[in-house]
Amino acid sequence: MTCSSIQMNERIPPIPPVIHPVSTQDERPFWSVMIPTYNCINYLERTLRSVLIQDPGLERMHIEVVDDCSTDGNVEALIKDIGKGRISYYRQPKNVGSLRNFETCLNRSKGYWVHLLHGDDMIKTGFYSEVESLINQFPDVGSAITSFCAINEDGHESKPLNAYLKKKPGVLDNWLYKIASAQRVQPPCVVVKREVYEKLGGFFGVEYGEDWEMWIRIAAHYPVAFSPACLAMYRTRKLNISNQSIISEQNYIDLLKVIDISQKYLPERKRKDVRKKALQNFSISYARSSYRIYKEDHKNAVSFILAKQALKMNKNIRSFYWIIRLLSSYFKNFILSKRVAKTLKGT
Question: Would 253 be classed as within a structural domain?
Fold first, then answer.
């Protein structure tokens, strides 16, 4: 099978890529579960099985893996073994980067609703039935999301991370302002009507935070439904894109760019306030992460870069709290190491 004619000269599209309408005249499935993957073969089997266990059948669900030229194993063989012919497979002719791979996923999707499920994330049983129930109850929405948790490399799950958004299933109130002021969802918990991508285009502009920009853009044009049921799992990995980009500060640069882009989606009277809230929220998040990363991994360089970025974004009491804890831990360890070195020298 061949991909639609998309210009992929730039790995990060400067404008939203065009998502073409489905050309087939055949009856379309309700779902397209599109699974972009790159070098995550150790997690991919669990991702696929989390979908297959709730597969409603070929007529209702299109499932496809789009591989960005992975080098860590034979992805096609794994899919054939697990899917038994149920899962389609497409491999890029060359590595095109995550955003262009998402673009390919969206243009190859056939269903009325698209679930872009990254190759290391997972969903829990009941995800598709819950989201379909939301769609049926609120047919005017452009997107539907559930609560989600984080899952680390060892399989440990966090508590639900955004169940506070709404106690009962329904359309989110003031969602544009809430999502523009903080990243409150992650890709595995989000389903988007394909028609929305056709009208608004695909992911663009940045490599880190491209999904956040998309959720803001959708919220500016469509109502969004939410269920507090925690049915999606977002994988946190030490070597994922976000962690690799900390040292280069690309994540910081990209987040500021997303905040700037999102301004045009907001009413002019709200822009200054939402921008300030976004900078404050990310400042607190970065400061908290700086302390956590130091305590867990003792990565001094990463921790202090995050602390610096936190203060550049916004100076507030909560950010100072976490940075003071970071510095306190660092100096305690520094003094301890000096004492140990002195003791060893005297023996």
Answer: no
